[in-house]
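Reading a protein record of the kind used here takes only a little practice. An example makes this concrete, so a full record is given next.
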Amino acid sequence: MNELDTIRTFLAIYETGSFTQAANRQAITKSVASRRLTALEAELDVRLLTRNTRGVIPTPAGVTFYEEAQRIVADLEDVKDSMRAERQGLAGPIRISAPKSFGRTFIQPTLLQIMKDNPKITLDASFSDRSVDLAGEGYDLGLRIGRLKDSSLIARKLASIRLVMVASPAYLQEFGEPKTPQDLKNHNCAIYTNAMEAHSWRLGPDTNPQMVRVNGNLKTNSGDMQVAACLAGQALISIPYFYVHHHIKAGTLKPVLCEYRSDPLGLYAVYPASRHVTGRVRLLIDILADRFSQPEFLKIM
């Protein structure tokens, strides 16, 4: 029995709460994952995990073993990463999750450049606007935009993301331009359903915000759909500036209520507090922080 592989399998089962997800994470079969756990429990002469209708539940001994095993495996990864970094720079596998539209515009070209500069890195990059369970789905790192409230994550801010409210000239000509936050109640506002407070828009600084209840005939989890509706003259939207900066410059969209603009959101690199971050992930975060501090990014974010 390869003890390290067996311990990694136990960690994956513990973190995902599922033999199937753990097997997928490690690219092994479910039966192999089950055999490894059985062998580990037999060697230790103690039950580490139990199964019930809700999935896999750790025993007290399983919790203790997980905490120690995770630390040992993480320390081993750190040593390996440090030795690789001395010889060859950023190297090894990293699994990363990022928002779809922001990822397409900024993260994809940034990661491709990082891979070009560091040819020994192996990236597994997933782009989705859904709420991703980083620990449960086996991600090393996530990039998120917003005001973070998840205490199970450790976060490092990479950049600020401005929010802007915009409408097309045709929309404003037909329905008028809002002059105060309360005027938004009389406008057709496209709702971004992935937002924590989708129907409440925050206006003004965080020290004294105004929360305005908005409604409209479009609800979507797609920023691209919001922009399309706005360009078609069918909605007023609140959206990160990077989505629409070129439309504003071209005059096809016009900012409104600029004096009530809210404080920027944050772009964060996040990883689960339950998992020790490896040296290569820390190095990738440093590289991303440097990229997003460059003037070409700052002027459109």
